[in-house]
Amino acid sequence: MFIKQCDDDNSIEFLHRTDIKIEQIENVKIEIESKAEMERIDEKINIKYCGKPKCEFLFAYYQPEQETKANMHFRSFVNLAQALDRTMVLTNVGSSRINSCQNFTFGFYYNIKALQDMFPDVKFISQKDFQNWLKERRRKPNTEHAYILPGESNYKMELLKPYPDILRTKHCLNRFDFNLNDDTVFKQFYTGKKFTRDPIKHQQFADFLVNNLRSNIEILLTSHFVFHPLFPNVSSPIPYANHYFDEAAKITNRIKPYVAIHWRMERANISMLNECSNVLVKRITQLRESFGIKSVYLATDYPIAGGKTQSQTFHLLTEDHHNAMKLLNSTFNVNTWASSNIFSSLRNDETIEKEFLGAGMPGIVDKLVCMDADYFLATPEGCGRAQSTYTTMIIDARNASMQIGERPQLKNIVNRWIKSPGDEEN
Ligand SMILES: Nc1nc2c(ncn2[C@@H]2O[C@H](COP(=O)(O)OP(=O)(O)O)[C@@H](O)[C@H]2O)c(=O)[nH]1
Ligand SMILES: [Mg+2]
């Protein structure tokens, strides 16, 4: 019976030696029995956290872009978790980011129930529960690491020298009690050039990724620097948590009927800003006359509440930006998230107040107010970042509402307040 339990060669060799005392054999027996006992305990812990004797997680601990893009990237990794039949960790959020260093649970930004409905086959676990699972585990689980990059002429994968220390310090992975060390397998993938242009190539890359990440490792850690979806089938954005809808409704109910302007000032042509503001003022005046619009709502990455810009990639803020805003503000009573007393019940907490004044929470409220607006004006070329996924998400939501007859107040989907050649009226 004892021999049967020995599944490693050292123990068998040990048994064949003649110089071993009885108590040493007893010690080995205890060790082996305790190993089996630990396995049993770990199985119970696994069942508690993932419903199975063995857990297999996917932990996409870092999304490289801000909220709208991070939302899309996160869905790519849910697709991957689904293809690999792994439980997806709901990474923390904050400051318009999704990554393991943030302070807030995923549910602070997103509606987890809606995410589950979008991906009924995928199991999810919160970052906190994932950490608790790791803490409880007797034998700490092993990891494998995958990093995905754009480029190279065709898709490929290579094995790299492990870099666990960077991940521990830079991505806060020292907060997780798993084995991440020089024995961990580190895979690096390249997507190949323009891999999303052709749906067949796109699918081939996705299959390559999935096939090379199939393993029975307990934890698959992933990160990337790819700006496109990893899989060709892209689902709609993960809906925001209910409290954003509640706060947005407080604003819209107070100001309707209203025109919402999304002015994404990042990357504006500085010499155009004055004209951008002038034309916008004229346009709003016309709209008020022709559509009986009462109020003006401004959503912008300009720091309307003072301090830093609302986009972390918006660095060049000049006197021209300030003057453009002054002109708008001196002409109309402009409503913004900063002039609306939103989230008042949450803001006595210092961490939430910091988040509230940063790029995350106001960005989500602004987006929802723009989706509901009677009339929507978006940033024209030259006045800022006209090609913005943030704006696109608003346009897509308004477009969908028009199609299904929801939001009957909508008078348009989107217009740019200065027309470029090729702009369509809608
Ligand atoms: N509060 C606020 N923040 C904005 C607005 N527009 C952009 N931002 C910020 O800038 C970020 C833009 O990044 P992202 O969402 O990836 O969209 P994109 O960079 O425009 O494609 C958002 O997540 C917000 O943090 C806005 O109208 N209001
Ligand atoms: Mg961005």
TrEMBL record:
Tree of life domain: Eukaryota
Compartments it resides in: Endoplasmic reticulum
GO BP term, example: fucose metabolic process
Annotated signal sequence range: none
Keyword DNA repair: no
InterPro entries: GDP-Fuc_O-FucTrfase, OFUT2-like
GO CC annotations on file: endoplasmic reticulum
A single MF term (Gene Ontology): peptide-O-fucosyltransferase activity
Keywords: Carbohydrate metabolism, Endoplasmic reticulum, Fucose metabolism, Transferase
Pathway assigned in UniProt: Protein modification; protein glycosylation
Keyword Endoplasmic reticulum belongs to the record: yes
Entry's transmembrane regions: none
The family this protein is said to belong to: Belongs to the glycosyltransferase 68 family.
UniProt xrefs under PANTHER family: GDP-FUCOSE PROTEIN O-FUCOSYLTRANSFERASE 2
Protein name: GDP-fucose protein O-fucosyltransferase 2
Organism: Rhizophagus clarus
Source taxonomy: Eukaryota, Fungi, Fungi incertae sedis, Mucoromycota, Glomeromycotina
